[in-house]
Amino acid sequence: MYRTIVVGSSGEIGLAVMRAAIARGDQAFGLDLSPTDIPGSAGTGQIDLRNDSSVQAGFAAAVKQLGGVDVVVNAAGLMARGSLLETSVAEFLRTIDTNLGGAFRLTQAAARIMQPQGGGAIIHISSIHALRGAPNRVAYAASKGGLSAFIHAVASELGPAGITINAVAPGPTGRGMGSAPQDRARALERTPLQRAADAEEVASAVLFLTSQAGRFITGHVLPIDGGASSTFFSASQHAGLDKMRPDSEGPGQAHNISVMEETNQ
To answer: Where is this region: Disordered (predicted)?
Structure first.
């Protein structure tokens, strides 16, 4: 159906997008720093998001194989963990250059091909960390927050050419919550739907935004996080707060405390 390039095709979400695109009938070409063969694909190749020449060469190989490009999905990136005081300038800039600079290079390369064709769709994989703060994600959050602003700006430029650009912002996926049981429990507790996302659910959102049904959507960052970015407390967290209040408080007092707590956050 579409000629699709997926960057980061060897990763959890990128591979899910590749498989979903192939199932849709797309000619799908995967690019990755460490490419792997994907059954049913039109081919795979290597790309380094921090290298201009590598991005140009990767796109050239994909376009030559596909005969053009209708959809570009950027699922590549660098997950950097570290607090403000622990993160070095070099690590911060490396993360920004990979996640935000890489998005710039890919979008520019895609637009140069799509504009003469009369249109196309570009999707970047963002993160819940672009929407709400969390400790030990300083560089990563900055890179994804910058990506949101980049998408808003580019949408206004590429719209007249018939090119849409959007992002999906997943919360934790199956492999993204950390291996420790307490990490998984904390992540699920903050999520109203009480589970992690499947990579296939993220891929489904990507396919919608790149389909004809999503052609009037551009400049949007779509959370795929089970409601985590839209709520102050999950039901289980709020129940825990209720249990912490003294039994002697009446309903009126409890309500006043709740309002005060929300105001003081």
So the answer is: 238-265
* Shared-domain flag, residues 226 and 237: no
Q: Phi, psi (5° rounding) for residue 185?
A: -65, -40
DSSP E strand boundaries for 47-162: 71-74, 120-125
Parent domain of 166: 3-231
Query: Within this chain, do residues 181 and 252 fall inside the same structural domain, yes or no?
Result: no
- Known catalytic residues are 140
Are 263 and 149 members of one domain?
no
Distances (CA, A) of 98 to 13, 95, 123, 192: 17, 5, 16, 31
